[in-house]
């Protein structure tokens, strides 16, 4: 298991080999053994295999080839719809129309997603996490027919690898682990901790291709701009209100 975790690579190219339903169910079952808030399991997973559904969903993921190339895609959703119905059918009035409940359900869904990823990789499958879900959650809700109380939080593609990419760099443990209390970073710390991210030739080329001076500028000016963040924040907050999590 440690080898699986330490050797994770994002796979964006898959073979045409399908994923057997029994294997997929085994992986999904492993996912459902993840920790969950109060054992409520306030999440749902929507499986996409159908080519027509892929065509509909692909634009919500900005047309990334990995989405259409994958034999299976999984959309993980925060879901209080099912739990609320159970409560009401048992003469219990749910009080989960609030942001706290959404956060709890989103955490549940993401824990399950990570379990699924690890289980899939342990079986030799490749995975790719798509963070585009929260950008176009409103459109995904319409396509997947998600009812009130259900909000998509992540999508993961699954397939048999058709590539063996270089492992992406990670910050050193010192950068992300704090002992007892948070230790803020000095300028010297930042220079040291981000050196390994900035030095690889691939990242230097990334900077040059985008006509920027630093890797940080690629993130702030190209990939995750303030304007886009503010726009998609509004979209997602509107989704939370529409789906019943901001009835304050």
The total count of helices amounts to 13
Cα(first) to Cα(last) distance is 43 Å
| Topology, number of strands | 4
* Percent of sequence in beta strands: 5-15%
**Helicity, in percent?**
40-55%
Strand ordering within the main sheet: 1-2-4-3
Largest sheet properties: 4 strands, antiparallel
Mean of pLDDT: 96
Regions with pLDDT < 50 over 5+ consecutive residues? none
State the order of secondary-structure elements, H for helix, E for strand.
Answer: HHEHHEHHEHEHHHHHH
The computed structural class is alpha+beta
Describe the structure.
- By secondary structure, the protein is an alpha+beta fold.
- The protein is 48% helix and 12% strand.
- The chain has 13 helices and 4 strands.
- Helix 2 (21-32) packs across helix 6.
- The longest helix has 24 residues, at 99-122.
In brief, what are we looking at here?
With 248 residues, the protein is α+β, with helices and mostly antiparallel strands. It has helices spanning 2-6, 21-32, 51-57, 65-69, 81-89, 99-122, 137-144, 173-176, 187-193, 195-198, 201-209, 215-223, 226-242; strands spanning 43-48, 72-79, 126-130, 150-159. The protein is globular, with a radius of gyration of 20 Å.
